[in-house]
Amino acid sequence: MKKIISTFLAALLCLSLSAPAAMAYYGPFDGRTAVSSNLWTGMALGLNNFRRTRDYYPGAFPDVPSGAWYEEGVRTLYERGLAAGGQRFDPKGQVTLGEVVSMAVLIHRTYNGWSMPEGMSGLQYALNTGIVTADQYDDYTAPATRRSFAAIMANALPTEALRGINIVMDGAIPDVPMTDPGAKGIYRLYRAGVLVGGDVWGTFYPNGLITRGAAAVITARMVDPTLRRGTTLTDQGSYRVYLDRTSMLLVPGQVDRLTAVVYPVNNMMEQRVTWSSSEPRTAVVDQYGTVTAIQPGTAIIIASTPSGTMATCSLRVVDWR
Question: Does the global pTM surpass 0.70?
Answer without folding.
Answer: no
